[in-house]
């Protein structure tokens, strides 16, 4: 039987990627359970708002293609497709993003604290309700800073991305404030920027490829609908396919298990290479652990 992943250890680029998949495979059942338990309400709200937005978008496009609108008079503005549905989609998408980060990082923190044992629902809920608002506020500030850095020049935005990403695991895994996590992220990533950046890029590429693979069936249905249904101006987008596609995209958020796990492993890799925390814990435990044996006590 394969041993459980040791979270706190120094890893190279390849080990971060392979251990990410190994950890997820070993813990897939509880991870999925807590995904639907604590993120399910936000995902469901996202599915509803995404479906409403897709229905509006598809109905407008089909109306233009079928001639329902007088194209000489109908001059859509750049914001024609935006409305309450779109902003609801953004809002619930942001809440889902925060819930995913807090849920999976809380699981990893408790998993390490309990010596590779699956945490209970009550333990998870205690962590999530404690960190949710802290991570929520921090994410808004970090997105603003990252947006400004990217607009000023693309290079600073790229450079800061892995540094800012480390702030979330520092906050949850070290129970740290935002200011402490902000400064510590710069300290940890010094001399290790490329390994962290490369690992996260590869995992995010895998994440997006997984979403694309899941979305292929609905894309094929839409293409067939456009070709096979003769109407004025051409075929029409399939409304059921649009709704199903919107729902699948929201459910695909579960694949975020991969980049969040990789981010946590990057954090442990950096802390071990800088601080050697795990090694010091093992040294401190020497002589304090009583061996557990089934041998009977000696009698004289």
Automatic annotation (TrEMBL):
UniProt KW keywords: Membrane, Transmembrane, Transmembrane helix
Transmembrane segments: 31-53, 86-110, 131-152, 158-182, 194-217, 237-270
Keyword RNA-binding in annotation: no
Protein name as annotated: Membrane domain of glycerophosphoryl diester phosphodiesterase
Source species: Mucilaginibacter lappiensis
